[in-house]
Structures are given as C-alpha cells and as structure tokens.
Amino acid sequence: MSGMTTEQGEALAHIDDAVQILDSIDNPVYVLNSAGDFIYVNDAFGRYTGNSKDYLLRTNIYRIRHTFQPSIFEQVTTRRERVSIFQEITNATKERLRQLTVGRPVFDESGKIKYIIVVLSPLLHLDAMLREAKTDTTYYAFNSETITSVASSPIAESLAMRQLLSRADRAAGSDATCLITGETGAGKEVMAHYIHQRSTRNERHMLVINCSALPDSLLESELFGYEPGAFTGGLRQGKIGVVESVAGGTLFLDEINSLNPLAQSKLLRTLETHRIRRVGGDREIDVDFRLVAASNNPLEEMCRQGTFRKDLYYRLNLINLTIPPLRERKEDILPLAQAFLDEFCDKYNRQRVLSSRAYEFLYSHDWPGNARELRNLVERSVILSDPDDVSLNLKDYLPDATKAEAHCQLPDTFSLRELQESVERGVMEGLSKQVKSTYELADILHINQSTVVRKLKKYGLSVKE
Description:
By secondary structure, the protein is an alpha/beta fold. 42% of the residues lie in helices and 16% in strands. It starts with 5 loop residues before the first helix and ends in a 7-residue tail after the last helix.
C-alpha cells in the first residue's frame, strides 16, 4: 500500500488476505500502534472521513484527536480492554458523524499494548441494517436522538442493563403493576418512562407523584380526590385526584414506601377493584390506569417491621425491576457521561470534551449517588469550566465533601437508614450555605422544592434567602 512506513509494512505483510477482506467490508476500520500512529486504514474509513489513505498513514491520532470525540484510543489505552462507545467524528468537510465505535487492544509477549484495532458502525447505517436483519425478534432502533435522550431511554451498554431492559420490554406489553427498586439516583423514574413509552397506554399521559413530598394529611386527597365540603381549606367545588385524572394512562408513584397506612389500604382496594372513593364521598368511581411504583427502601423489610402492608407489597411486586448501582455496571458510565455532556453542551452552548484524566476518574470513582451524581457533576463541570479550557477533568469539579464527611462519622452501632441520613444531612448543610433559595437547591438536587423544605426542617437547617 502506498504511503506505508517500514513498520506498517512489516505489521501487515503476513495478513495480506485479511487486508483485502477488510478493504472489502462496509464498516470503517483502522489500526493504531501504541504511539497512536495509523498503521492501517481500510477503504471504507477513508470514504467515511473524506481523507486519503496516504494522509492518514502519515498521521498520528493525537494530531487529529479533536475530530474524534471521545477518544477511543485513550480509553482502550487506559482500560486495557475492549471498549464500546458512541463517538462523533468530524470529517474533512466539517460534517459531524455519529457512530458506535469498538476498540480492541492487541498485546505483545510482555503484556504491553502493541496495536489497537478500531471498528466503526455509523448510526445512520445501523438502524437500516437492523431493520433488514429483523425477522420475528425484537430490536432497538438506534439513532442520534435515542442515543442522547437519556430521559426517554436508559443507557444499556452493560449486560445487566440489557437484560433489565429486555425484562422491562416484556413487562411493558402488559398492564401488570411493576415495582422498580434500586439505590437513590439509579434512574427509577427513567425506567418508569421507558415502560410507559413502550406500553399500549403511551398515547395517554404519565403522571409522576413523589409520595414523600406530600404531607400525610394531603396524600389521600391528592391521590383519590375529595368531594365539595370534605374538609376545611379544600376547594369549594371539590377536586379530582391523580388516580382518576390519569384516565387510561400510567401513574408512577415514587418513594411508595412513604405511603401512610390509610393510603396503603385505599390503594390496595383500588388495584383490586379498579374503583376509588373520593374523600368525603359516598359513591365509587371506575378508574382505568396502569400503576408503576418505585421504592428506595426495601419493602420486604418494611413488611417484616409492620410499616408496609404485605398484601399491597405482593400486589405491587407482580413484576420487579431492580436497577443495579452504577458502580456495578461500569460499561454504562462513559456512555452516560457522554450523553450528559452532549445534553449540557447544547443547553449552555459550550464546546467541551472529556480529558483522559476524566476517563480514569469515571472508572475509579464509586458513584454513591449513581446516575444522578454523574449527571450533576457533568452539568457543574460544563457550567464552571474555564471558557478557554475545552478539555474537562471532572474530578476538578467535585463538590466540597469535607462538611459531608464530618457528619459521616459512624457510631459503634448504626443502621443503613442512619448512615443515609448522615450523608444526606451533610450534603444538605453544605449546599444550603451556597445557594440563595430553596428552589435553587431543589434544582441542584433534582428534587421537588417541597421535599427540600421538608428535609431542611428535618435536619434543622435553612437557606438564607
């Protein structure tokens, strides 16, 4: 091949047949050595990028790294394993192309990386290929919108998440109640939206109610509504509850573990009879809705403690979907970070990329706050980063954890709830001194303002407005 160096020629001399095969396939392919020099590029890669082979074979990946975001070379070099990412390439005509990129290291006898083989699957072609290959099996349509819209479709690069989404797809085809469990910030509401969007009720709306954000005195009337004159302070004409108003759609009850015993009893009867009775009413009303619930706390333990009805738990737990914590599905971390980065760069009109140090941090950090922590960190980084510094090192924008740690000194005996509250108090105290209103604090934490007020009161804290 013209333009090859001696090293490039020796590297490929024994695989002439393989080179001819690679040149004949539609997927763009290239090979880098450990220094980042292009050793081989196939015809499809030259066409895809608009660059000649001669040019590429005289080039080091670092010289054109700004056209490959994020860098598959840096990630494979850092992780020393096969890596799959969603990547953007800016071609010779300045057009931005998105593709699924897979990089695989080849090691020498001493265990050092000798080559990195990279295969690209352009997203514009991938959906068409999947449609062509489809028989009677279910498939996911990939395009730039579904890849970057984290709110509408969970990132599922890890085997655990792919299996979970497959289970969620099967659940979505029925009207069965679903119980979504997982740690705080794991993405339970995202999963609920995913189920609704793939259900037969997707043309109707989905209502989201955080049970912990409503006082016990209002919870029953909010869920089931009330008749005129039912209680002092209510609307004169009465009010329709959310169960009735969802009308053919999906009701998502987050933190359902916060329901008081009376609300638990009424919800159970509603699920069994598909009827409700408004507060102060004497007649039953037919309702049609699909319930998806979520809990941060283990409901089985609450049942043993007598704080949650066993019969309601069994009714809710018809289909259980447990979202694994982010630290247990590391394959999802980088795609999530990139999706969040794309979202906030668009939102704040910034141009930012993740640095190699950011990649190391992404995989070394434990992510106790899961996807929500990652999302907040990426947003904070985009907002606070130097306008002249395009490359982000996320670790530089971690919040000051010293105050939180001060409140996390563990006693000789403690419960998980006490530990969670200790961490939560530290975070709330630290942030409450940095914001100007409870609404700003709610925006940072991605929770309701009423929840912020309740938690501040719980810990004896306040925001100086």
